[in-house]
Amino acid sequence: MSDILIENYVQQLNDPETYTDVHAAVIDLVMSVRTISKDQLMVYLQKAILTVLLDSTEDSTIEEELRSSIDSTVKNQYININTLHSVLHSINVKLDVFGMEIAESRDMDTSTEILYSFINKKGTGAIQLSTKYTQNDIQLVKHVVDRIFAPEHVLQSSVTDAEGNILHRITYSVPYMSMIKHLRNGPEQLDDEDMPLMTKLSFDESELFLQDLELYGWLELYNDSIPMGPSPRALDAKI
């Protein structure tokens, strides 16, 4: 009985002009994670459809069948790639007004996995940085930031201005080769099945990754010894 209900609802989603709670749920998900694989998004889409139908039914038999389907491990039982494309088309029509979209791309690491990312089409480099990377890249960015602000990399100094006021300066920097080593070791792997497995970088990949961050203004390389720190990230406090 629930199969007919699901089939009819999916048929509605195949109409690119349709916009439902399922579309809103997909937007919320992709905005939250920024980048998601096609397979993961397909699984989420099917569960979102079943959940919306579950919330709207008052038939106990259908409710039980829907709950069973939600818990099922069968992937894409009720939808296909055309359903996903129709849903994304409807979403992007809405987002276009704001200069945003959910864009399709291929994972640079595998060249085969299809990814979907929430992007700002009119954004600045800093905004695009937050949307153009995979989950692995985002975890590496966090890893870089954590290393920069680690206690052992804090530098404190004091200077006196023309009026005799003492200014305390706190700066953060990591030697370039030390950061390369940290990137090659990769971030700590959490014991969580839902967390993606972080891919470690080679020496060349680490250098390219840091150069990319510098290009977008997130990091700055300076001095002959090439220490590294956010650009700029110095705090002055007058006492």
Give the % helix. 40-55%
Succession of helices and strands: HHEHHHEEHHEEEHHEEE
- Low-pLDDT parts are 228-239
Estimate what percentage of residues fall within beta strands: 15-25%
Kindly name the structural category.
alpha+beta
What summary fits the major beta sheet?
3 strands, antiparallel
* CATH top level assignment of the largest domain: Alpha Beta
Give me the number of helical elements. 9
First-to-last CA distance: 74 Å
Number of strands: 9
**What is the fold named in CATH at topology level of the largest domain?**
Aspartate Aminotransferase, domain 1
Gyration radius over CA: 24 Å
Number of domains: 2
Per CATH, the architecture of the largest domain is Alpha-Beta Complex
If strands are numbered along the chain, what order do they take across the biggest sheet?
Answer: 1-3-2
Morphology call: elongated
| Average of the residue pLDDT scores | 74
